[in-house]
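Fill-in record for Ferrous iron transport protein A.
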Amino acid sequence: MKTLKDIPCGETVKVRKLNGEGPIKRRIMDMGITKGIDVFVRKVAPFGDPVEVTVRGYELSLRKADAEMIEVE
């Protein structure tokens, strides 16, 4: 199982599944990150927090803990 946290800069991946419960999952979905969507990893901070991504044309910053909940292929 690979998560968004494991993806190096410059790669595009497809979201396979969102893990997590309640408000955390809702916050990720409110950013437009849903199953089947492509996510481009723009930048990862030196210690992996935050992970900057492009989703649906929007540039977003994700906390490392949130990126670990997004399963990708």
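KEY FINDING: The two ends are 8 Å apart (CA to CA).
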